[in-house]
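User: Here's a chain of 216 residues. Predict its fold as tokens.
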Amino acid sequence: MPSPIVAPSLLAANHGEFALGIKAIEEAGLTWVHLDIMDGHFVPNISFGPQVVADLRPRTQLHFDVHLMLSHPDRFIAPFVKAGANRLTVHVEADHNVGQTLKAIKDAGISAGIAMNPDCDPTRLLPYLDAVDLVLCMTVFPGFGGQAFIPSVLKSIEFLSAERQKRGLNFRVEVDGGINAETGRLCRSAGADTLVAGTAFYKAPDRKDFVAKLKA
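Assistant: Prediction complete.
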């Protein structure tokens, strides 16, 4: 299993002070930030677009792990690549040709990920595992932060982790939603190696200690 990575979600930071949210991640000794892009159609909320990503890019060397929760993610590859994304993750459930979208992301020179919602059958991801660098299992229904972890997703994590080992692949298995020290431990045991934490990270009294517990 790859060494663990914690990627705080900027969505949980103060939206009027995103630069301080980035600084908090750096001060915790982390190297990734998770950027949730929501269009109000694929999920019932709106977050921010490529301009915010572009404005943040000169301020940090953090890996921009960009999660496109969009109905038509294929239409936004170029803007987010130009904005400075290091990785674009798209949903298997969205309205697009998944294979073509993943190829376009890779052709643009950045990493590609595939995501699934909690009620998605993980077998839907099987045709794309050879083409991705990361698989994201949503552990809540996307749209809003602070939701409770959905334990049934652990079976999907186990399935995808086993498939990774069986095929000899090296994509990362990421989880996002309701991640704290307890649920993070469950996800790690199931095979996840990349943990997105939003509310729990930013509200932690000691963020470095919180990260250490997630990675333990």
